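Hello,

Our lab assistant flagged a job as stuck in the queue for most of the afternoon. It eventually completed. Since we weren't sure the result was trustworthy after the delay, we are filing this so someone can double-check. Below is the sequence as submitted and the structure that was eventually returned. Let us know if re-running is recommended.
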Amino acid sequence: MEKVVLLTSLVVSLAHEHHHEDSLEWVQSNALTSSLVPFIQQLGPTYSSLLASAFTTLAALGNFFLILALQLREGKEFLNSMLGFACGAILGDVMLHILPSISLNNTSSFLILGGILLFYSIDRGLSHDHTQGHNVVLLILADILHNTTDGMAIGASFYISPYMGISTTLAILFHEIAHETGDFIALIQAGYSLKRTLGCNLVTGVGSLLGAVAANYWSDLEALKGVVLPIVVGNFLYIALSSMMGSLKEQGKKGNLFWEVFFFIMGVIMIYLLESFE
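-- returned structure --
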């Protein structure tokens, strides 16, 4: 029961923070964010978007230490059960956040299927590695692509106005905290050390910086995102349904089924709560 309380507290606290901070009106009326506007105007939209992209990556690291503390306190079996939370968060992100932002048609459907096939091929090519290392490679590639589209959104918003840039950055920040929670669990469960897990997070953050740069030079960001996002969906679907849930089935004990399902649902609920306030 204690583990239920710990994880529920995490979900509620994230949703509560997002409710107050993912609002353009709140940003415009808040004294602290308003005081940042002259600084942003002095930096210009290019450097502001790069700084904001780096901030979203670094700020998401805080959740890692919570997951690490839970692992040390509850043990490896608990972490295996929490892999269900990672699956729920990633699939919830796909179904509730990414897919609704895509214009679904035959082209995007073929790109999603192409994304699944592409990363299946990569997975097969790396399958000589009998550890979970190839799963981690797929997850990192997907996160880099996903973060690239986030960086595009941040970059474009700062060109509209400083207030819009701040609002978009905060929205992506709290969404990233939710998503990275699942990633951290997956990396630790795969046997990655603290140093390597943090390093992987920083590597995926490069995607956000690339997206912010692309926003300054790419004339049609929506067309580019229309190609990248369906591929990201295909990758996340493959990782969660094939690799992660496959690992749960192989490593999990029958007695932990309840917790695996429970944490899966909690992962989806966390994404839902965050999306409901956007």
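-- support follow-up --
The delay was a queue issue, not a problem with the job. The result is valid. The chain has a mean pLDDT of 77. The longest helix spans residues 221-251.
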